[in-house]
Design brief:
about 450 residues; mainly beta; 8-stranded antiparallel sheet; about 10% helix; disordered C terminus; PHAF1/BROMI; PHAF1
Length: about 450
C-alpha cells in the first residue's frame, strides 16, 4: 500500500521514496515516476480518445492504488490528481495521517487535519456532500436515510451521532474550483536542468526551408540564489555542424546512429551501393520535441523532425509536443479564402484542412514502425505525404504526427513549385532526397526515421 503525502494545490508524493506527482508536470515525467516504481505500482492504464485527442483528457489510471492522474490534452501537463478509492492508499497531511487502515477519513477527521473551511456543499440529486479547501476537495456520500440539518441557513450539514459519512474521493487541483482547474506552468522542480520549448517557427525563404527558430526556456543559472525561469531564442539552420547545434541547444537527450538504411531499396542503384563505414546520426531532443539529423561524412545538419506527441502514435510519450508554426503559400483557391492568404500549419492542424489548400504528393508512403525485438505495433501505420522540401506524417485520425524538414540538394524556387511539381531535376534519388518528393519512390527515398529505444508502459485505448 502506497504511503503518500498530500500537499493541497501542489502534489501527491511518497513519504518513503523520493518522488511525487506535481501539478503541472509533463505526462512523460509522470510515466517515468511510474516506471521507476515497477513492482510497486502495478496495473497502470493510459486512457485517451483516438478520434478526438484534443478535447478529451489523457488519463493515467492506477486502479490497484486507487489513483487517477488527469492531464490536459493540449498542454499534456498534469491538471488534476484524484484518489478515488481511499481504502487502497495511506494519506498524510503535514506528516499527520488522516486516511489509513487505522484512521477513518470522516468529516471530523478531515476538519481536524486540515482546519476550518467554508461551509460544505450538498448535492441532493447525487446525495453527495463536498468539503472544499483551496486546491483540495473531499467528497462524502450521504445515505438518503439521514436527514441533514442546516445551521444559520448555511450549507454545513449536521449528522446524528455516529452517522458521520466517510470520504469516498479526494481531488487535488489548482485554484478554487475543480471544474475550472487548469494545469499550472511547468514547476521549477520539474525542470531537471533541461531545456523546454515554448514555440518553434519554421524559417522559409524563396528557395525553400532554411531551418528552425526556437523559443526556449530553462531554470536559469544554477549559481542564482533562487531558481527562476529564463527565456532564450536559438536557431538551427541547415548546414550547421553538430557542434553548432550542441552549442545552441545543449547536449541531446540521446544520440541515435542510423546503422542501417531501410529506405535504400527505393534507390535506383541500391544493389550496386557498397556498405558505407559511416552512418548518419540523430541528436534526439525529447523535451523539445525535435530530432536533428547529421550527415555521416560532413557532420552537417541536413534534416529536422518535429513531433506532435499524439496519443495513439508509436512514439507517444517519447517526445514532448513541438509547438511549431509553419507558414506556406497556398496552391489552391477555395471559397471565402483569398489565394494570397497563407496556409498556417501548427501541431493541432488536421491534414484534410491543410490538403484543401496545398498540392502534396498524390500517393502517400505507408510507414509501419516496429521495434527491433518486437515487430508488433498496436498503433497501426501512418501515411507520409511529400510537399516541396517537407514530409507530413499523418495518423489515421487525420492529425499530423510529425513534420520532417530537409534541405534539397537542388534548391527550387517556391514560386515555381506548381510548375515543377511531379518533375525531377536529376535522374538519381538518394536517401537524402536530392529533389522534392514528387512521386512515391522519391518520398520513400526522402523519408528518414528516428527510432530511439524507449521503454513504454502498457497502453489501453
Amino acid at each position: 500500500m502506497l504511503d503518500l503525502e498530500v500537499t493541497p494545490e501542489r502534489s501527491l508524493g511518497s513519504t518513503t521514496e523520493n518522488w511525487e506527482f506535481v501539478l503541472g508536470m509533463h505526462f512523460s515525467q509522470a510515466v517515468a515516476i511510474i516506471q521507476s516504481q515497477v513492482g510497486i505500482i502495478k496495473g497502470v492504464q493510459v486512457l485517451y480518445s483516438d478520434t478526438d485527442p484534443l478535447n478529451v483528457d489523457i488519463i493515467i489510471n492506477m486502479p490497484q492504488d486507487g489513483i487517477r492522474l488527469i492531464f490536459d490534452p493540449i498542454q499534456q501537463r498534469l491538471k488534476t490528481i484524484e484518489v478515488f478509492n481511499m481504502k487502497l492508499v495511506k494519506l498524510k497531511y503535514c506528516s499527520m495521517p488522516f486516511n489509513s487502515p487505522e484512521v477513518v477519513p470522516s468529516i471530523e477527521e478531515i476538519e481536524h487535519s486540515f482546519g476550518a473551511t467554508h461551509p460544505g456543499v450538498y448535492d441532493a440529486a447525487k446525495q453527495l456532500f463536498t468539503l472544499h479547501f483551496r486546491g483540495l476537495s473531499f467528497y462524502f456520500p450521504v445515505d438518503s436515510k439521514l436527514q441533514p440539518g442546516y445551521a444559520h441557513g448555511l450549507g454545513s450539514l449536521h449528522f446524528p451521532s455516529g452517522a458521520s459519512p466517510v470520504v469516498s474521493k479526494m481531488v487535488i487541483y489548482t485554484g478554487v474550483n475543480v471544474l475550472d482547474s487548469r494545469p499550472p506552468p511547468l514547476p521549477l522542480s520539474c525542470y531537471q536542468q533541461q531545456l523546454y520549448l515554448g514555440a518553434a517557427t519554421v524559417l522559409r525563404s524563396a528557395h525553400g526551408t532554411r531551418g528552425l527558430r526556437l523559443q526556449l526556456y530553462s531554470e536559469g543559472s544554477i549559481r542564482s540564489l533562487e531558481p527562476r525561469k529564463q527565456c532564450l531564442t536559438r536557431e538551427i539552420i541547415f548546414g550547421d555542424s553538430c557542434q553548432d547545434v550542441a552549442t545552441n541547444l545543449g547536449a541531446p537527450s540521446r544520440v541515435f546512429f542510423k546503422s542501417e538504411d531501410k529506405m535504400k531499396i527505393h534507390s535506383p542503384s541500391a544493389h550496386r551501393r557498397v556498405q558505407t563505414k559511416r552512418s548518419d546520426f540523430f541528436y534526439n531532443y525529447f523535451t523539445l520535441g525535435i530530432d536533428v539529423l547529421f550527415d555521416a561524412r560532413t557532420h552537417k545538419t541536413k534534416k529536422i523532425i518535429m513531433h506532435t506527441n499524439y496519443p495513439g502514435h508509436y512514439n507517444f510519450n517519447t517526445y514532448h509536443r513541438c509547438e511549431f508554426h509553419l507558414e506556406l503559400a497556398a496552391d489552391k483557391v477555395i471559397e471565402d479564402v483569398p489565394l494570397d492568404a497563407p496556409v498556417m500549419i501548427t501541431a493541432y492542424s488536421k491534414w484534410d484542412e491543410v490538403a484543401t489548400r496545398l498540392t502534396p504528393s498524390e500517393r502517400p508512403v505507408v510507414l509501419h514502425r516496429a521495434g527491433s525485438t518486437n515487430t508488433a505495433n498496436v498503433f497501426g501505420s501512418t501515411f507520409c505525404y511529400g510537399y516541396q522540401d517537407i514530409i507530413f506524417e499523418v495518423m489515421p485520425n487525420n492529425y499530423i504526427a510529425s513534420i520532417t524538414l530537409y534541405q534539397s540538394a537542388t534548391p527550387f524556387h517556391v514560386a515555381d513549385w506548381n510548375a515543377t511539381t511531379g518533375k525531377s531535376s536529376t535522374g538519381s534519388t538518394s536517401s537524402t532526397a536530392s529533389t522534392a518528393p514528387s512521386s512515391s519512390s522519391d518520398l520513400k527515398a526522402a523519408l528518414q526515421d528516428a527510432k530511439p529505444s524507449q521503454s513504454k508502459i502498457r497502453v489501453t485505448a
